[in-house]
Amino acid sequence: MDAKNVKKLTLYINTFIIILVLGLMYFFHLCNATILVYFSIPTLFVYLFGYIVIMQRKLYFYVRMVYTWLTLYMSLTTVCLGHNYGFCLYCLSMIPIVYYSNYIAYRLNLKQMKTSIFSAAIIACYLFSTGYAAINGPLYEGPKGAAGFFWFINSLIVFTFLITYTLILIRTTIRSEEAMKQMSYVDHLTGLYNRHYMMEQLSAIDSFDPSAAVIMIDIDDFKKINDIYGHNAGDYVLKNLSDIMRSSCEGNVISRWGGEEFLILSTGSKDIHSRMEDLRKKVESTDFVFDGNKIDVTITIGLAEKKDTRSIDKWIQRADEKLYQGKNSGKNVVIV
């Protein structure tokens, strides 16, 4: 979640709290709960001031202010009306939200709260207010049936908060893990899969899949390209060759094996040899132009079918041997 979305969500929450305080203020008036009516007035000003704080993106200050005031508000409400109204339940939702807010602050490089201290303060206020109400009874008696109604509404709101924030946290965690997984599987320069991902895919291939084949591809005289045109030109060749392979070898797993070498895993393709020949010709006929210099690029390809080879290392070694056979026979060829 970025700063813009956090700001938008916080504005919604602040507006919801103000509406809730106004509604409760009217109810407290009906209960003749003078203390709560008077306490609701500064509460409104606190949340109105919250809009200014939010617009200035002072998240740390806003969170501390809101959580402190909410804790006082709910504690006082519980003391005045008793725990049967369910206002004390908000403490249950505040603790996970405190930790979630700290996580958001971390993501946005903002100042973080001391969550343990806040959580301990919330628990202490909860125990004191509910304990006082249980021992001494409420200070005010609300209308008949009001306790059950408010217990239901407050419980519903608290569970909604808990479910919403838990869902957001889980989704954020999943997206972060997927991003990390993607980073660990993809080569940064070419955007192709890396050696680690390819090994996982090779391990998943059925030992007796007759259609499976690995193709080892190497850029011919790549060192000369770097020496003559520079390493930026070499990177340009690698990236453009990767794009060509993606379009020509659709449906296959393509990886950067290392340096200027690539490994392709093909399954279910009956014409893989002709496809590799087409790829070789396409690379040979493509104009690679970097900084006004035309670079002649060709590739040599070694192809090895799976057949009954059970060892992944030996399978790759066979493709590598085919590749070097092509290198020794003049390059720019496909060897099967």
Can you give a write-up of this model?
Helix 3 packs antiparallel against helix 4. By secondary structure, the chain is an alpha+beta fold. It is built from eleven helices and seven strands. The chain is elongated. The strands form two sheets. A five-stranded mixed β-sheet has the order 2-3-1-6-7. It has a two-stranded antiparallel ribbon with strand order 4-5. The model has no long low-confidence stretch (mean pLDDT 87). Strand 2 (253-258) and strand 3 form a beta hairpin. It has two domains: 3-184, no CATH class; 195-335, Alpha-Beta Plaits, CATH 3.30.70.270.
Fill in the keyword field for this structure.
336 residues; alpha+beta; Alpha-Beta Plaits; 2 domains; two-stranded antiparallel ribbon; 10% strand
Q: Radius of gyration from the CA trace?
A: 33 Å
Helix/strand-derived class?
alpha+beta
Strand content: 5-15%
Sequence stretches where pLDDT stays below 50 over 5 or more residues: none
Q: What is the number of E strands? A: 7
Number of helices: 11
Return the average pLDDT rounded to an integer.
Answer: 87
Going across the biggest sheet, name each strand in turn. 2-3-1-6-7
- Cα-to-Cα separation, first versus last residue: 50 Å
Global shape:
elongated
Residues in helices, as a percent range: 55-70%
The tally of structural domains comes to: 2
Largest beta-sheet characterization? 5 strands, mixed
Secondary-structure element pattern, one letter each: HHHHHHHEHHEEHEEEHE
List the helices and strands and how they pair.
Elements: H1 3-30, H2 34-55, H3 59-81, H4 90-107, H5 115-136, H6 146-185, H7 195-203, E1 213-219, H8 222-229, H9 231-248, E2 253-258, E3 261-266, H10 272-285, E4 288-290, E5 293-295, E6 299-305, H11 312-328, E7 334-335
Parallel strand pairs: 6-7
Antiparallel strand pairs: 1-3, 1-6, 2-3, 4-5
